[in-house]
Amino acid sequence: MSLSHSWLLTPQELSKTLLFHGSIEPWQLARPRAGGYDDCFWTSDCPLIAQTYIPKWGGEAMFSISRWDRDREVCPQRQSMIWEIAKQLGASATDITWRNDGRAESWRDTGKPVTYQQVFDHLLSLGYEPRDGEFFRVKDIYITNEDGEQVLMPVPADRQPFGRLVIVDRPASLALYDLTEGREPDLTDKQYHKVDTFQKAFEAGYQAVLINDFAQSPRYGNVGHTSIGFSSRAIGALFDEGRVISIPATHRDFPCARGDYLTEDYLQWHFSEVTRALALGFPVPTAVIDAHQERFDALLADLNDDAQLLVPVTLDGARAYDIALPAAGSDPVAAEDVAAISNGLRQGLFEQGDATFTLSAHGRLTCLRGATLVEAAEQQGACLTVNASLSDQEGRTVTCGRLREALDYARAPADPAPSF
Asked: What pTM does this model have?
């Protein structure tokens, strides 16, 4: 299986043996589930295509702040992002009488006056640029305040949700029902709606269907591609065989120039797999090392040989049961701390802090400190990147010097064949 020996292939070579699925949903179960609409688990043969399906954010508010209103004071309004921002800036009101359109008819000010200009400036400070000088499209989220109320608030423009890229080791033999018939994608014939055809194919024994599909690119609009949809039974069987993993990922759009469409998330995961293989003494081809030379240089820069090697690995909240935790009582977990981290994750904020992890030679992630983070990730069904040390087959911590030695050994010319 390609996934179990990913370091033997370059990122480009490996990607041709895999399928990909992008998701922003909180996963409470690691086992993939097919969609309720069509009973299909959809995949693409390209990580970039899959990650275009991860949205930039879950919800957005759209509104305008007219230049003619800038000097006016913001008044209460139901379900209004402008009023919610004004409250964050100090506005407050009680004894409100509401009109049918959700605007306040009368109220009593209990906070400081906040103008539309102050709200406008606050949005600029969050990184938002208004279209035509007054129209905003703002990422938003509901959070629970100290009074237990659900409050709508904006998040900075550069925030990204914590999504996941599901990687499927494509079977060499796959019973695939082909609906494309060699044709190009056609917007007038959206094949992802052919639910009855999918069901009949699965009932006839096919494991998956192949369709023409369309991704939505902010840069290029509709982008045609093919998708493979696995039945519930087929994707479940692949998971049970260890042929499905998840890695942290965010939304990615198509680059300006065409390329191989391997995303940073996919490349970082592959680099970590290659680094681990080298540290454990597995044979890694020179071409694979060359593909990640800049990453190796950055990882080892300014570190001495005795320094502990730390590599980015996946902490999947849906697989928290696979993570070894500290002994009971040695790493207390406070509910308020879990809530704070969970709230941050929902807002696109995450810092590893003093949480400490190690990855064994067999791929088992152990949390030495930071069970609070693991519980928060489990609650949110989040897939996160954490830095972890590596342990070898004898349980010893791998150092930077050991990785340098492995790189030198892998690059050493092979002994010439003896001549007789």
From this structure: 0.91
